[in-house]
Design a protein that fits this description.
Layout: E1 2-6, E2 15-19, E3 31-41, H1 43-50, H2 54-60, E4 67-74, E5 87-91, E6 103-107, E7 111-114, H3 120-123, H4 127-140, E8 148-152, H5 157-168, E9 172-177, H6 182-188, E10 192-195, E11 208-213, H7 220-223, E12 227-235, H8 240-248, E13 253-255, H9 262-273, E14 281-286, H10 290-298, E15 305-309
Parallel strand pairs: 8-9, 8-11, 9-10, 11-12, 12-13, 14-15
Antiparallel strand pairs: 1-2, 3-4, 3-6, 3-15, 4-5, 5-7
The chain binds NADP nicotinamide-adenine-dinucleotide phosphate.
NADP nicotinamide-adenine-dinucleotide phosphate (NAP) binds near residues 155, 157, 258 and 300.
Length: about 325
């Protein structure tokens, strides 16, 4: 079977597609074997490849690809939740990817069954980006109906799902994006948009209950004047300044760390079924085009998600 590997960190050309032995289920207890149909690119893919987290890359030998839509092809006898032929939606942990391959082993807790009639390529954009938005807004910030939410980076993979999630939970949403993406964010449901090229959201006259900093380019000191006293500031990237802010304001400032979280995945899938959330696909690449896919996603100018099509899946 084909799999994407990288033996050293560097530019996208370090990525290679190799043929490896088929995965054996022998000795596996709570894992299922899945033929991957679609995955997506997340920022962590090119950050690992580029060497941003060299320590983890060396220590955990991290494979790339975390989002999975696939078909169950083998199930050990102790697993009753899944059967051969089921279509699943899954998320691998950030320290142990591997979805950018033709087959993958998934723990039963890392996936849910989905309806095969759904748009499977769209679903592949949900797991990592969607669960990150869900943990941030629903769990960390305890989002309630009627609250005001600002999403810095509304056109990104995480941000475009966060806008729709916040709207689905009854929030009033302000999205920060470049001017060319304002309309896109409004079409996703944002009530207000701020063009970061012409306006500084930190100087807004409005106050927010939740500020979700997807692009991580601000600090608590900067947003304090626009955050309600009981509000939350959630960041997607850890830094010394964020750690300092978390220590100073432990109940207000949070870092989100995504992990395979069935409850979040189940709720996101429900919202997709109810047509309250959809994935905007920027571009689709095949597994053979993985180098181009990394180059494209790493530009950080994409809107929504970049999808990877595997095993000749139909689109
Ligand atoms: N901690 C975790 O567990 C976790 C999980 C998932 C993701 N993340 C992090 O979350 C971040 C976002 O990931 P992603 O996959 O959603 O990224 P992405 O889709 O690659 O982000 C690209 C988008 O960011 C927008 N953007 C770039 N600079 C901006 C700025 N200054 N202000 C507002 N928008 C800006 C771009 O729009 P324009 O062209 O309009 O600027 C583009 O639409 C990454 O840093 C990633 O590492 C963390």
């Amino acid at each position: 079977m084909k799999k994407v590997i990288y033996n050293k960190c560097g530019d996208p050309n370090v990525l290679k597609i190799v043929n490896i032995d088929n995965i054996d289920l022998k000795g596996q207890k709570d894992k299922i074997l899945v033929k991957v149909l679609f995955s997506s690119i997340n920022a962590v893919d090119w950050k690992y490849r580029r060497g941003d987290f060299r320590f983890f890359t060396k220590m955990f030998n991290t494979d790339l690809g975390y989002d999975i839509v696939g078909e169950v092809i083998n199930v050990p006898s102790n697993v009753v939740q899944y059967k051969k032929g089921d279509i699943i939606l899954g998320l691998l942990p950030t320290l142990k990817g591997g979805a950018h391959s033709e087959c993958v082993l998934l723990s039963v807790n890392q996936c849910i069954t989905v309806n095969s009639a759904m748009d499977l390529k769209e679903l592949a954009g949900i797991p990592m980006a969607g669960v990150t938005a869900w943990i941030s807004l629903i769990e960390k910030a305890k989002l309630r109906k009627g609250q005001s939410v600002l999403i810095n980076g509304g056109s990104s993979g995480v941000g475009h799902l966060a806008i729709q999630l916040a709207k689905a939970y009854g929030a009033e949403v302000t999205s920060v994006s470049s001017g060319k993406n304002e309309l896109f964010c409004r079409q996703l449901g944002a009530d207000h948009t701020i063009n970061y090229e012409t306006e500084n959201f930190r100087e807004s006259s409005k106050k927010y209950d939740i500020i979700f900093d997807v692009v991580s380019n601000t600090s608590v000191n900067e947003i304090k004047p626009i955050l309600n006293p009981r509000g939350y500031f959630i960041d997607t990237n850890i830094s010394f300044s964020l750690i300092k802010d978390m220590l100073l304001y432990p109940s207000k400032v949070k870092f989100v760390y995504v992990y395979p979280y069935k409850k979040a995945l189940t709720d996101l899938y429900r919202l997709v079924e109810e047509k309250k959330i959809h994935v905007h696909i920027d571009k689709i690449f095949t597994l053979n085009q993985i180098v181009d896919a990394h180059k494209y996603a790493e530009s950080s100018r994409t809107t929504g998600k970049v999808i990877i099509k595997i095993n000749g899946a139909k689109i």
